[in-house]
Every structure is written in C-alpha cells, then in structure tokens.
Amino acid sequence: MKLKKYLVLLLLLTFSNTLYATNSFGQLLCDYDCLTVNGFVNRSVLNFRTLQTTGIGRFVNLSAYQLPRGAANPSNMFEGNLQFSGETLGWFSVKDTFNYAAITNVKQLPDFNYQFIQHGTHLIPVSRGLQTTNHNLWQLILEPGRVWNEIRDNGFSRASLPFSLQEYGANCTHNGVLTFLFKSDGSMSSVAYEIASETCEYYQFNLYGLLNANYFPVQIDNAAAIKSNYESEVTNRMPTKPLSDLAVDYPRSRINTNLIASEQTSANLSAYGVAYNGVHYTGNCTTRFGSYPYCDVMSLPSYSVAKSVFTGYQLMALEQINPGFKTLSIADFVSACPASQWSDVSFENTLDMATGNYTDSGFQVDESSVAMINGFFLNYTDSGKTNFSCGYARQSPPSTKWVYHTSDSYVLNKAITRYLSQDSYAWLVNTIYQPLRLSPVLNTSVRTVDIANQTMGGYGLTFHRDDVVKLAEFVNNSQGKVDGQQLLDKTMVEQVLQKTNYHGLSAGSLYDSYDNGFWIWKADAALGCNTDLYIPYMSGFGGISVALLPNNMLYYFFSDNNEHSFITTARELNKIGDFCN
C-alpha cells in the first residue's frame, strides 16, 4: 500500500551516534514546545546574507534575536560544541565611573567553547550558572534559548541564545543575546551578538559584532536527564501575567499599574514585578534597543539581597536544625578574628551587622571607604578578605549598634563553612534552594580565586525573576516551610515578618531598622495606617529591592540608578493588598 503524502513514520536518523525521530521525508520531528507555522518570516536584519559576514556590523533592535511570528520547527539538530574567539568589535560607552574602558580586552567577549543540546525548539546549555573563563574581567552565564527555521535561511536552522557577562569577583551583570545559523553536519554561519542592558551602577555599555564560529557535533552525556531537568525547570515556574493585568484581575481596586516602579528611571530598570494569589505579574524587561527576548532567564545579580537569602536563610536553617546555633562565637570558628574583639560576637550579631567592631558608625561610611573597597571588594583572596574583615577595632558592645559591613557577611559565611566542615553554599543549595525548585543559575556563586574557593556571603548570587519570587514567598507566605516542613527557625522568621515586638536596630533613618539580614521599613505614616506597620524588605546595591508586603503580596525591582524607594508602588499595591488591616 502506498504511503499517503503526509503520513508520519518514526524513522531513525543517525547523528553523532544519537537517534532522532524523522517523518517519511527525513524531516526532523519536534518533541518539545513545537511550532505550527511554515517558516515565512519577513526579516530585514540579521538575515542569511548578514550572517555570512564578520566584523562590527550594526546595533539592531533585539526583536531580531527573538523567535519570530511565522517561525517553523527546526529541520536541523544542534548537539555539541559552539566555539568562537572574542574580538574587539562594536562598543559604545553609556556610563563608566571608574574608567573600565581602559582595562585590556574589556570590549570583547571571552573565548567561547561550550556544549549545547537541542530539545524540540529549545537549545539548552549543558553547563548552567556562572562559568569561569580565561578573560581578565568577564565570566559567563549561559541560559537556554530557542531554535527554529525560516524559509529564507537556505536549509539552515536558526538559533538564539541569551547570555550574560558578570564581572570577575563581583556582581555587575550585563545581559546579551547571540544568534547563528547551523546545520546538523556542523555547517554554520557567523555568530552575531549584542549587549544592550545591565544591572550595574558604575559600568554600562553596548557591545555588538559578528564573529567567526564553529559547531562541532558530538554526543552529549546525560542528554535525557538534561532535557528532563529543563522541562521541570520551566514547569515549576509560577504562572505569569503582564503587570497590567493587576487592574483586570482586581478592577474594584482602581490600581494604576503605570505607577508601579515609577520611582525608578525606566532606562535603568532591568526587571520588576508583583506576586499575589499564586500569580507572578511581570513588568517589561526593556533594554536600550527593544525588549529583552528572554525575560524568564534574564540574569539578575543579587548584590546585598544575598545577605537575606544566603547568610540569612543559612543561619535560620541551622538554628532550626540545632537550636542555639545562632549564639555561637565567631572567634571559635574564624581564627583570623582575634578573641579580644570577636569572642563575645555571636553568629546572630554578625548577621545583624551589630558586632561592635567598626571604624565609623556613620551610615555607609565604613562600607564606602577606600579601605573597604581596596581591602575587601578588590581583594579576591580568602585570606585577604578574612584578615580585613576581622581587623576592625572594638567600638561598642555587640548587639547594640548597627553598622553596615558586607565584610560581616563574609566572616559569618566563613564561620558557617568551618562549622559545617563542608562548602556552606553547596549545603544551602541542597537544604533550601533545591526544595524550593530554584533555577540552575543559583547552583553557582561568585567565589574567591584561591584554593579556599570561598563564597562571599553578602553578594555574588544570580537570580531569575521566578527565583526572586520563590525566595521571598518562602518567608512571606510560607513562614520558612516547604511542603509543610519547617526549614527555617520559626522565631527568627517571625522576627523578620515583624510578628514580635522587636523591630531590629536603627539603620540609617527614622523609618528603617535591620534584623536577621533584612531591612525593616516603618510604613504606617507613608501608607496612612492608624496603627504601626512594619514591612521587611531586602535591598541590593544600585537600586534593588524585594519587599515582603502584608497579606502575602510581594514586590521586587532590579535597577541601577541608585533609586531604592518604593513608597509610591506600595501605595498603589495597598489598594489591592489592604496592608493596614
């Protein structure tokens, strides 16, 4: 019997020793997130001809890098290594406070040789999270992208991949996208790349160009597990809606969603959103040249939010396991911290940044000092950071005065590492982050460059926006429980959520205090409440806040123009959340 023209058979295509399903015409069958159209795309930029060239090229709207309307399922399979070498091509400075432009090779990508595996219309990096490179300034974060066909690409399939550059030893993060054409046999075009946004207060730029590149097909180990894990990652994200849908879902509130995040300059706003009643209402993730094509996996640096969700959650989790853990002495676990200044300083004192050891108690004076910048932030060794952090003189009794020191978080994290006799961050990932089903980008962190390989404690994590919501709701909505199991000490969680009479130590203003790694805003006057209202929040350098609002609502924004206020937003969200009651 003759086969009907469109009868699909499961034939086998041998490629790199891997078997793929094809139809009766030898065309690759899609097995995940498949497309239903024919590949007719009206493309005016980054077309087939452009991707056969190299050089500076030109800066284009990032819509050219996203999956377009009309895209068809890919007819080629990518499984193997993508390789290219960085060159200095297109670059434009937007802001450069410390003359980074003078640093060697700062205007080029790191050399690139990483493995990817295709799953349906998605392209997944084999290695996720922060990747060490041979570049003197930039490390890489690779995220999953998309693969598709366009009829005018002459039998090639087209791939688009989000990536980020993160500053070596720091948290400054620049988000980009790259694209290329390929065939299953290893044929490929140039790679076009573009960076047009960042979360970085002091260094901002545009980077772009077209580079020679190679695709080396090779069978990937654990391919099935990589694909399965990725599907779970996507499935486990909270459902999203556009932020404007808050007005649709809560029409009686008369909320003006245009006022949400209005206190941050829009050009400096990477991501923002609200989570409420099981829905993640997401704002735009705009760049200087259009919307970022991969908002769900945009890399968002933690900066000091890590003081809450790294050292804060770490200490609360260990206090839950071993009651009294928070009272242990720093001097007993960090030998570089002299007993004369640290024997009476507890782990909790250090989390509260109330060690009594400082130079100047003025707001952010120690933190922004030349001594701190050179001795701590620009010192990339564990011994250097530890010796500096332990070197402050005793000025007041522990637990009596708050003085902001990122170095305190480093000391605490080092003490916890010594207590556990294992990598403290790996312990946190296994104990808290994995049960919360966070993304793989949180499996890694910035570390020192010596044999100690020590994590920072007070900065150095990277989030996806879904991670931000889950980490905040873990305390705000679930009170430190996962699947009914209490993972964080209940008393410390209640202190964070302001369910006790103690509201922390005064922290820089009449309206702010600090406790257990969280800031606390006295919000009743701003929101017109008749009784005291305290709202905990997390804060990060440059303009990052994650607010744990009453009645199980949360709000976050990541920006980089030193605009931290969210009073206007809180007033609007109060129309829905009824925070005073």
Automatic annotation (TrEMBL):
This is Beta-lactamase-related domain-containing protein. It comes from hydrothermal vent metagenome. InterPro entries: Beta-lactam/transpept-like. The lineage of its organism: unclassified sequences, metagenomes, ecological metagenomes.
